[in-house]
Amino acid sequence: MERYIALLRGINVGGKNKISMPELRQGFEELGYEQVVSHLNSGNVLFSTTESPLPELTQQIETMIRNRFFLKIPVLLLPQSQLVASLKEAPDWWGTSDKEIYDNLILLYPGLSGEVFSQEMGVPHPEYEQVQFYERVVFWSFVRKDHQKTNWWGKTTKASIRQNITIRTANTLRKIATM
User: Fold this and answer.
1) If DSSP codes are grouped into helix, strand and coil, which group holds residue 16?
2) Less CB within 10 Å around the terminal CB: N or C of the chain?
3) Helix (H) and strand (E) counts for the chain?
4) Is the dihedral of CA 9, 110, 50, 62 positive or negative?
5) Which of 69, 4, 63 is nearest to 33 (CA)?
6) CA 143, 149, 152, 154: dihedral to nearest 10 degrees?
7) CA–CA separation, 116 vs 93, rounded Å?
8) Is the model's pTM score more than 0.85?
9) Is residue 151 classed exposed, middle or buried when 0-12, 13-18 and 19+ CB atoms within 10 A define those classes?
10) Rg of the chain in Å (alpha carbons)
């Protein structure tokens, strides 16, 4: 049985796309998934199943959300082991205890290449932000007080690729990796 992480994009943000976590967990259980848990209220769901084709699992989850909550929510699905492996590749500057720095991981949906992502986002502003690519993730840190001075901050919500990425904090992902 494999452990998976479903990252739902854009739910419970600013009062939009509201989804109750208990109802969401129930929807996952009704799909036959086991050991279903959620973390925070932002669409992080872990579950176990013997089924393995990621596209089929993703389609099942997106269909359940559409039918149950009447929302079209993109879902990024990955094996928990893949997240653990990615976090082991984090650069030294990412995910530190420095409260002045905000550490995020940008996860690319299937179909979006790192090259297209880079072209769309442009060059990060070295004075305010640092980035490092690893496979299908981008480690991204920036000075918290200067977030609006970064080249990437506004682009993560306005760029044409925004529907093909999801972003989580270092702390959230480290917690999910161990659940």
Assistant:
1) strand
2) N
3) 6, 8
4) positive
5) 4
6) 120
7) 25
8) yes
9) middle
10) 16
Q: In terms of Cα–Cα distance, which of 85, 107, 104 is closest to 94?
A: 104
Burial level of 152, CB count in 10 A (0-12/13-18/19+)? buried
For the chain, 179 residues long, give each residue's pLDDT as a single digit of tens. 999 999 998 887 777 889 999 999 999 999 999 999 999 988 999 999 998 799 999 999 999 999 999 999 999 999 999 999 999 999 999 999 999 999 999 999 999 999 999 999 999 989 999 999 999 999 999 999 988 888 888 888 777 888 899 999 999 999 999 99
Amino acid, res. 94: W
H/E stretch holding 56: helix 54-69
DSSP letter, residue 147:
G
